[in-house]
Amino acid sequence: MILDRFSLAGKVALVTGCGRGIGKGIALGFAEAGADLICVDMTAGHVEATVAAVQALGRRALGLGCDVREGEQVERMVSQARQEFGRIDILVNNVGGTVFKPALKTSQLAWEAVLRQNLTATFLCSKAVAPVMLEQKSGAIVNISTRDSKIPCPGMLGYGAAKAGVNSLTLTLAWELAPYIRVNAILPGAVWTEGSGPVLGAVKERIEAATPLKRLGKPEDIALAAIYLASSASDWVTGRLFEIDGGIEFTPIVAADMGGGN
What we know:
Layout: E1 12-16, H1 21-32, E2 36-41, H2 48-56, E3 61-65, H3 71-85, E4 90-93, H4 108-136, E5 139-144, H5 157-177, E6 181-188, H6 197-200, H7 204-209, H8 219-230, E7 241-244
């Protein structure tokens, strides 16, 4: 049956930043699709609820604390995951974040912090997991970027630049790691989560009005795309950037609109 190609049964997936929001949504979606999960966040305590929810779906789950901006911690995390499960079939680089400041008021420290959180973390995790997948001669990496990586990003200069870097990293790794590892990215639009809600609240109506489908995204919208890219349903797909955003076109929203600094 062709729909069986979307199953993740027998797969082991490592998802970063899955304590809440999009990462948690992806982890739970993967579990429903049949995968076992390695749930990673800054501390193991942050993923306890996600681990419990995955286990409630009848799947194995391991919660690990790791600062994915630090190479040694990432290597140790991958080693622990491999010891527990023996393999890693799917990597989702979901960790990200930003600061809200106009470009000329963004300090070097803030700029470098955003690059480390979004771009360096994606590089380090991919570099650590890819050898495992190459040894297996199979694997899928799904990077969570943003539609802001392809449009002007006023008030979030570092975030847009870092995620544009994630896009480039995705395209290059897709070539370097083929044919055994497929590498793709999802570029979400505005997704309403417990974390983003306070930020998006002030501009929710403006975004919805500019969106053909007239709503903000949900974590499960991104999870469904991730299941496709992680499963054999996308066996002939690599090096692609998927915009999942309700069809929105660019609408200028600056940091001040979202409560950021001037």
